[in-house]
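Please check these two lines:
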Amino acid sequence: MVDHGKAKSDISLAGTFASSAFAACFAEICTIPLDTAKVRLQLQKKAVEGDGVTLPKYRGMLGTVGTIAREEGLAALWKGIIPGLHRQCLFGGLRIGLYEPVKNLYVGKDHVGEVPLSKKILAGLTTGALGIAIANPTDLVKVRLQAEGKLPPGVPRRYSGALNAYSTIARQEGVAALWTGIGPNIGRNAIINAAELASYDQVKQTILKIPGFTDNILTHLLSGLGAGFFAVCIGSPVDVVKSRMMGDSAYKSTLDCFVKTLKNDGPLAFYKGFIPNFGRLGSWNVIMFLTLEQAKKFVRDLESSSTS
């Protein structure tokens, strides 16, 4: 039996944070066009004009990517990449980097054997909530910039870029506005983080028990796909509420947004953009975990060679 619990904790906390931040940023750059498509699909409401129903502008993930690229240029697909990288550096570094230390804290230093799934979930919930409580402004700015492209031609853009968006929101709406949607965001990110990290941990542990499987790229790939699937199934409803609240000020609270969405668009609206969401989170997790495992290996070799 491979004790990969030990292998993960044998690099410094700074090394773990740096590896996590790097892996999260790399995955973000690769997959943000899918995230932009996902946000546009989630913000799209049923439009009714007179007696007739207008056809939705965005249809499907690839259709949405194509529409944005055609109408706004390829660069629009990477809108929000700067706050996206701010977010991943801060949030990714914290939630992934602290997962192992927090998990070890929950089981206690004298624990021997496999870590129970409940403790993995608890560690994921803790680091997800903590990370996003700090990184919420970066998330808000990313969603606002991604939603900008929906404005009709000729309507001036509210923000010239990420830094301008932070200062404009703070100046016009107050500093507290940068933490808009913090409730659903903590809920969403704690849940998704637990789903991603605990399921990756659990799937990897299960795969390593199968004869012929070792701690290699194939194992990381399968575990990453499993983590992405669990994360989307569990996190999609809170993700839709979060995007709607951040992209539109018409909702009074999380509950108000949930009820209005359910009443106006039906229960399936909470799984709106499920395919782009899985395309995004599935590929994000695969890229992130593959990069993370390699980055940690690199840091481990670096640290062991500097101490020897």
The chain has a mean pLDDT of 85.
